[in-house]
Amino acid sequence: MYTIPPKKMLIINILDILRKHTDSEHRLTQKQIVDILADEYQMTVDRKSVKRNLMNLIDFGYEIEYTENKRAARDGSDEVMATDWFIHREFEDSELRLLIDSLMFSNQIPSSQRRQLIEKLKGLSNRYFSARVSHVASLPEVKNTNRQLFYTVEVLDEAISSNHQVAFKYGSFDASGQLLPRRDEEGQDRIYTVDPYQLVATNGRYYLICHDQRHGETLANFRVDRILDVRVLQTSALPLCQLPGYRNGLDLPKHMAEHVYMFAGPTVKVRFKVADEALSHVFDWFGGDVSVAGCGRRGAGEPGVSVVTLQVNEQAMLYWALQFCSYVEVLEPASLRQSLQEAGADLARKYSQEPESPRRKVARK
């Protein structure tokens, strides 16, 4: 039942029809709108009333389009007919599809909350769009997610906006997949107090970029989905411009390129050789802020090799070089080459013999 007179609801119902039934590929005539009003809203109106309210919506600022056709009137004059009405949408269907697919494969948002968000995004389009995203029904279940995630994001956003410190516990998973707070030397839940600066999404995860005194003057990165029991403190956060190297603020693209796995710590100059066939991986991970120089071919018929120079977190580069070890040889720094040698020796030792059964190990103890 309407809480206001039905006639005053006419313009709202017409707007609702346009949102549910139209886009640039699906348009309605005034007669079709009259029929829908009768079938779905139990309202009996004429075409003139529909057109008057459509023009009022346009006057109110709604992006509604239509086409004009001329036809001969009974008196012999030309009569202009408005038809093919549709409303422009704030999001294109392709944009909504990208947002929905991003949520589909998020590794940190609980499935029930993802479904709710996806339904809200679907509501921004019309009934034709819902039929094209039927794959949402097969939304994968993500276990071991932090139910505090949305609350944590809200609190961190508030702290960043108000320039206040935050305190929180930071979790790690145990063997059963339960997220438990890390402990200090005395066995108590460790409390982290940081100056928050930025929330970023990378590698399918949400991270807090902040200053933690335990990391000295460098920035730290915390996984938001592992932050527990966060709260805003009354103390003001240290201004980012007071940290060495950040006088002009945070160059976010540069920071993300230098911290591909979001490890904390300073960056170093790294030079490495890479097969040209793998250069795409270099630009995918590090962006365009790298120096690349060709250095010829390995041999007859073999692909070319280039030397890449960039600034990157050393621990992150260790993981990246191991991931692409078939294509990459690190030239410097010497400390990184040493770490890779040790990692390689460890891998060779582990895989040079058949794996030993856990039962045999227990039996020998």
Describe the structure.
It is a single chain. The chain is 36% helix and 26% strand. The chain is elongated. The strands form three sheets. Strands 3, 4, 5, 6, 7 and 8 form a six-stranded antiparallel beta sheet that branches. A four-stranded antiparallel beta sheet has the order 10-11-9-12. The protein has helices at residues 10-21, 30-41, 47-59, 93-104, 111-122, 127-132, 149-162, 252-258, 279-286, 314-323, 334-351, 358-364, and strands at residues 64-72, 78-87, 164-173, 179-181, 192-202, 205-211, 219-223, 227-236, 267-275, 291-297, 304-313, 328-332.
Topology:
Elements (H helix, E strand, L loop, with lengths): L9 H12 L8 H12 L5 H13 L4 E9 L5 E10 L5 H12 L6 H12 L4 H6 L16 H14 L1 E10 L5 E3 L10 E11 L2 E7 L7 E5 L3 E10 L15 H7 L8 E9 L3 H8 L4 E7 L6 E10 H10 L4 E5 L1 H18 L6 H7 L1
Structural class: alpha+beta
Task: Write down the domain tally.
Answer: 4
Shape: elongated
Give the integer mean of the pLDDT values.
83
The helix/strand order is HHHEEHHHHEEEEEEHEHEEHEHH
Low-confidence stretches: none
Count, helices = 12
Largest beta-sheet details: 6 strands, antiparallel
The fraction of residues assigned to DSSP E strands is 25-35%
Q: State the total count of DSSP E strands.
A: 12
The CATH C-level name of the largest domain is Mainly Beta
CATH topology of the largest domain: SH3 type barrels
